[in-house]
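Lab channel / #folding
Pinned by the channel admin:
"Please post every new chain as: sequence first, then the structure tokens as a reply. Keep commentary short and put observations after the output so the thread stays searchable."

First post following the new format, from NK:
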Amino acid sequence: MLMKRYGLLMSLVLLFSCPGCSDDNPSEYTTGDGGAGDDASDSQDANRDDQSDGGLDDGGFEPCEGVQVSAQERARPVDVVWVIDDSPSMIGEALIVQRNMNTFAERVSNSAIDFRVIVITKKELVRVPAPLGTDPEHFLAVDYLVLSNNALTVTLNLLPFYQDFLRDEASTHFVFVTDDESEMKYGDFQAQMEAKLGHAFTAHAIVSPPGSYHDIFDAGCTGPNGDAYDNGEEYWDLAADTSGQQHSICTNDWTAVFDALSVEMGERIPIPCELELPEPPEYMTFDSDLVNVEYTHGGVTETVLRTPSEGDCTPGELLWYYDNPDAPTAIVFCPDFCTMVSDDESAQLDVQLGCESQVWTPEI
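Reply from TO:
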């Protein structure tokens, strides 16, 4: 599934000034010939005429000052921690993980996701090959013996050894691969790990599913690599509680497992429904009546109209308002426009300062 979280990738582009701008130092504006002040004022009408013909002459100005804030969706960074049971019964599954790790990393990378991979297990069991295994920017191996029942405990206790490799802005995923049950309750692990990380995480379980038996008395699934020692109910429940993937360790098709995991980790960050007002250039005074929002979608650009307040939002219209009309610090989208932008993967928003605001006038 694709989950949405809000974030913003911004780039600032400063355009040159013009008559529609509010400024403190008009004498500082110069023409292409080096003239200033009155020279610039005298040429304004000519500049407008040139623009109407499709261009500006060398000494012209843009019709208004613009500070452009472009927002577009991007993939959220992902940090993935693989925790692999080192017990002798796991040799077959460990080799499968080792063989597929580069394919997994490639799939995540091809989704334009900035990723990091951490593997907790003995290096003798899983040795991730190049290119991922030799890439210190994206890969970290924590060489530690993970026993049949202590994967959750080890993951928690070893956090100081890999926490610096985790990023605050990234989503954190844990993948537990074991053919046994955990000695630690999943709720204890979840509460302690969230407290240490400072945010929620997603856990994925590749274990023997609850209710599996390989004979009439012994719990644990049966697969190509033998019988599981026990069902991994704690891992299974942890994955369910954190909206993660649940897969049987006895599966014949591990390709589907890795494919599902790579898709699950592809979170996109939509444009937020509240944009902080950009700072104007030093030579320009901010004027709340000289702000416009432009929305580009499908190759078409529309000016989004300003409305006085949230209470004046009109269903079906593209509208925005200030968070505080008397002392604005942010542009807030009305609900319908917010929904449209959040669902638009190609959306771009441009906030223009210095141009007379286009205001919504409701029909009477």
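NK: The longest helix spans residues 91-110.
TO: also worth noting, The first strand starts at residue 10 and ends at 14.
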